[in-house]
Automatic annotation (TrEMBL):
<dbReference type="Pfam" id="PF01370">
    <property type="entry name" value="Epimerase"/>
</dbReference>
<dbReference type="InterPro" id="IPR005886">
    <property type="entry name" value="UDP_G4E"/>
</dbReference>
<dbReference type="GO" id="GO:0005829">
    <property type="term" value="C:cytosol"/>
</dbReference>
<feature type="domain" description="NAD-dependent epimerase/dehydratase">
    <location>
        <begin position="3"/>
        <end position="261"/>
    </location>
</feature>
<keyword id="KW-0119">Carbohydrate metabolism</keyword>
<comment type="similarity">
    <text>Belongs to the NAD(P)-dependent epimerase/dehydratase family.</text>
</comment>
<dbReference type="GO" id="GO:0003978">
    <property type="term" value="F:UDP-glucose 4-epimerase activity"/>
</dbReference>
<dbReference type="GO" id="GO:0006012">
    <property type="term" value="P:galactose metabolic process"/>
</dbReference>
<keyword id="KW-0299">Galactose metabolism</keyword>
<keyword id="KW-0520">NAD</keyword>
<dbReference type="InterPro" id="IPR001509">
    <property type="entry name" value="Epimerase_deHydtase"/>
</dbReference>
<protein>
    <recommendedName>
        <fullName>UDP-glucose 4-epimerase</fullName>
        <ecNumber>5.1.3.2</ecNumber>
    </recommendedName>
</protein>
<keyword id="KW-0413">Isomerase</keyword>
<dbReference type="InterPro" id="IPR036291">
    <property type="entry name" value="NAD(P)-bd_dom_sf"/>
</dbReference>
<comment type="subunit">
    <text>Homodimer.</text>
</comment>
<comment type="pathway">
    <text>Carbohydrate metabolism; galactose metabolism.</text>
</comment>
């Protein structure tokens, strides 16, 4: 099977490329490198022994995409490319709509023109918005409250419309919860540019001494210990979930959406405790005011993925914190180490 992976040098995309190659797939990557390094292609090759085709470019470059689709006969597209900062999306909405929505519209148009009808999309639990019930099921109302979430919801709407218009299409939206961890080999991992927004990369930067302390946003939520609770999922489990999604699009028609989460949550303090216990590294922290826009606690109802994709998480919290540390401790400057 030959697949196009957009955003394939990004955190989740690169881990998916590794498992896809190891499953025997022929992988072509297109990535703008705005938020990732070309050195990820070397890292992928060092793990699998297979260097994926790589094209540098952005989704809304219709000329580039037509050229790629003319050079390769794809069986499916797995679409990770997109901006993902909630805070930035609020400051620069049109940057997010142009890239995340407009770019995907161009990609889907080029797919249509080249008769590629199988589409796997990296969506997000953010589209659910404020929880009307917890855990979130796929039937929870779609009510995003930030531009990033709106952009993901809009793409899901485009997918439903395309599948309605062209019955040969098969499209699945995978609604991620909180991806963390890294490939256990230590040479592939999360490498956000600048100061990390997300908990785990911030925590590992503190552990490696690149940042002085972790600020924990709020310790008076109505949770087990007052800190925020989220459904963390190992990035390798997430990557394997995409392989199952490819099987689904190859054997079904129409649109579907599936949560990819563990089905339970951990608090910030539980993450810190596990990290320190497993890795023998102290993580200095202090409590800060709540972060605007944060929800107290949510996690996935993961039953659809088990029923529809025959997939569920297999890696533990200890695996997540161990693999995150293996990557960060070996590469304190991420891919910049190799420059
Ligand atoms: C997790 C917990 C924070 C940083 C975001 C996006 C979501 C998805 C995943 C793309 C919360 C706490 C965090 C820190 C902290 N991304 N925290 N100190 O906000 O659940 O989800 O990333 O799809 O769309 O919204 O993830 O890692 O930022 O926060 O205390 O320095 O850690 O308050 O409880 P979040 P996060």
């Amino acid at each position: 099977m030959k697949i196009l992976v957009t955003g394939g040098t990004g955190y989740i995309g690169s881990h998916f490329v590794v498992v896809a190659q190891q499953a025997g797939m022929d992988v072509v990557i297109v990535d703008s490198l705005e938020n990732s390094s070309a050195k990820v292609v070397d890292a992928i090759e060092s793990i699998t022994g297979i260097r994926p085709y790589f094209y540098k470019g952005i989704d809304h470059d219709i000329g580039l995409l037509n050229g790629i689709f003319s050079n390769h006969k794809f069986d499916a597209v797995v679409h990770f490319a997109g901006y993902k900062s909630v805070a930035e999306s609020t400051r620069e909405p049109m940057k997010y709509y142009r890239n995340n929505v407009g770019g995907t519209a161009v990609l889907m148009e080029v797919m249509r023109n080249h008769n590629v009808t199988n589409f796997v999309f990296s969506s997000s639990a953010t589209i659910y918005g404020f929880p009307q019930f917890n855990p979130y099921t796929e039937s929870h109302p779609i009510s995003p409250f930030n531009v990033y979430g709106h952009s993901k919801a809009m793409v899901e709407t485009m997918m439903q419309s395309q599948c309605g218009a062209v019955p040969e299409w098969s499209a699945i939206a995978l609604r991620y919860f909180n991806p963390v961890g890294a490939h256990p080999g230590g040479d592939l991992g999360e490498d956000p540019k600048g100061i990390p927004n997300n908990l785990m990369p911030y925590l590992t930067k503190v552990a490696v001494g690149a940042l002085p302390e972790l600020g924990i946003f709020g310790n008076n939520y109505d949770t087990v210990d007052g800190t925020g609770v989220r459904d963390y999922i190992h990035v390798m489990d997430l990557a394997e979930g995409h392989l199952k999604a490819l099987e689904w699009v190859n054997s079904h028609r129409g649109f579907t959406a599936v949560n990819l989460g563990a089905g339970y949550g951990y608090s910030v303090l539980q993450i810190v405790e596990a990290f320190e216990r497993v890795n023998g590294v102290k993580v200095p922290y202090s409590f800060k005011p709540r972060r605007a826009g944060d929800l107290p606690a949510y996690w996935a109802d993961a039953s659809t993925a088990e029923r529809v994709l025959d997939w569920k998480v297999s890696r533990s919290l200890d695996d997540m914190v161990r693999d995150s540390w293996t990557w960060q401790s070996r590469h304190p400057n991420g891919y910049g180490d190799d420059s």
